[in-house]
Design brief:
The complex is a heterodimer.
Chain A lengths: L2 E3 L3 E5 L4 E8 L3 E9 L6 E6 L3 E5 L2 E6 L4 E6 L8 E11 L2 E6 L3 E6 L1
Parallel strand pairs in A: 2-11
Antiparallel strand pairs in A: 1-3, 3-8, 4-5, 4-9, 6-7, 7-8, 9-10, 9-11
Chain B lengths: L3 E4 L2 E4 L5 E7 L5 E7 L5 E9 L2 E4 L6 E3 L9 E3 L8 E8 L8 E2 L3 E5 L1
Parallel strand pairs in B: 2-11
Antiparallel strand pairs in B: 1-3, 3-8, 4-5, 4-9, 5-6, 7-8, 9-10, 9-11
The chains are: A mainly beta, B mainly beta.
Chain lengths: 112, 113
């Protein structure tokens, strides 16, 4: 089977930097995605890493180390609107098809 | 573009009843999927489809059926609802070769009593 581990909660203050880690144990790994979900809303795509290294998209960056089965999402210059749940998701090739499997999510609370 | 639409938004069922959750997308995406979200458990894949006529099981398929007769529609059927199926259901779609980026519908909140 497959498993993804990420912290259940993280707290930070406005303007700070926070890192949300994700470790995975899977077969057929293709890459790691990150999604954001505000309370009552639908998940929205943030970033994707297929290769080792850092991908930057504005205030958000995502990192992947395939050899360590590890990735993280880095949020800089935190704003109150960043309070949300963040999910890592692995893209797998299994049974002849690709699929996207999500972790349990990390709830980020940003305080003034 | 409407994106991914889901109906109904809310539904209450009694144990043993059946129903179909509707999902449609207007982006011509080959890939569509159904997830359920329960507190503390993230999004769990129920069933997915890589194109019309092709479906496969995800992580938690028991109690659910799907079919994909058109590119646009991917309904999820609950044959005999159980309280354990109380959840928020999300439908998503994406380009088959880029499914790391999926577009989610607004969700259906289902309660089974």
């Amino acid at each position: 089977g497959q498993s993804l581990e990420q912290p259940s909660e993280v707290t930070a203050v406005e303007g700070a930097i926070v890192q949300i880690n994700c470790t995975y144990q899977t077969s057929g790994f293709y890459g790691l995605s990150w999604y954001q979900q505000h309370d009552g809303g639908a998940p929205t795509f943030l970033s994707y890493n297929a290769l080792d290294g850092l991908e930057e998209t504005g205030r958000f960056s995502s990192f992947l180390s395939r050899s360590d089965s590890y990735g993280y999402l880095l949020l800089q210059e935190l704003q109150m609107k960043d309070s949300a749940s963040y999910f890592c998701a692995v893209r797998l090739f299994s049974g002849g098809y690709n699929k996207l499997i999500f972790g349990a999510g990390t709830r980020l609370a940003v305080h003034p | 573009n409407a994106g991914v639409t889901q109906t109904p938004k809310f539904q209450v069922l009694k144990t043993g009843q059946s129903m179909t959750l509707q999902c449609a997308q207007d982006m011509n995406h080959e890939y569509m999927s159904w997830y359920r979200q329960d507190p503390g458990m993230g999004l769990r894949l129920i069933h997915y489809s890589v194109g019309a006529g092709i479906t496969d099981q995800g992580e938690v398929p028991n109690g659910y059926n799907v079919s994909r007769s058109t590119t646009e529609d991917f309904p999820l059927r609950l044959l005999s609802a159980a309280p354990s199926q109380t959840s928020v259901y999300f439908c998503a779609s994406g380009v088959r070769d880029e499914l790391y980026e999926q577009y989610f519908g607004p969700g259906t909140r289902l309660t089974v009593t």
